């Protein structure tokens, strides 16, 4: 269960990629409604993912940098 900060942050990328069950998604939404620290983390990562995806589609990011980013966040983080 992701009802605490660590559990919520552990599910951050799956949440942003809409890969969670409806129950876990609802738990995280409840947590985010009451935790500004986690909300800020989710907002930051969501925006970062959006910007990098946009720039990558426009070939504005060198492949070597994308590889480094994938190394930090996982190979499928832009999917």
Sum up the structure in keywords.
single chain; elongated; mainly alpha; 5 helices; 79 residues
Could you say which overall geometry the principal axes of the C-alpha atoms support?
Answer: elongated
For the termini, the CA-CA separation is 24 Å
Whole-angstrom Rg: 14 Å
Q: Beta-sheet strand percentage?
A: under 5%
pLDDT < 50 stretches? none
Give the strand tally.
Answer: 0
Count of helical segments? 5
As a percent range, the share of helical residues equals over 70%
Q: Provide mean pLDDT, rounded.
A: 84
Largest sheet: none
Element string (H = helix, E = strand): HHHHH
Query: What is the structural class?
Result: mainly alpha
Count structural domains.
1
Task: Report on this structure.
There is one protein chain. The chain has one domain (5-73). It contains five helices and no strands. The mean pLDDT is 84. It has helices at residues 5-10, 12-16, 22-34, 36-57, 63-73. The longest helix has 22 residues, at 36-57. It is 72% helix and 0% strand. The chain is mainly alpha-helical and 79 residues long. Helix 3 (22-34) crosses helix 4 (36-57).
Brief summary of the model shown:
The chain is 72% helix and 0% strand. The protein is an all-alpha fold.
């Amino acid at each position: 269960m992701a009802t605490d900060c660590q559990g919520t942050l552990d599910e951050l990328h799956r949440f942003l990629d809409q890969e969670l069950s409806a129950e876990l998604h609802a738990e995280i939404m409840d947590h985010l409604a009451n935790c500004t620290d986690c909300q800020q983390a989710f907002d930051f990562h969501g925006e970062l993912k959006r910007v990098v995806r946009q720039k990558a589609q426009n070939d504005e990011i060198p492949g070597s940098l994308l590889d480094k980013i994938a190394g930090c966040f996982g190979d499928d983080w832009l999917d």
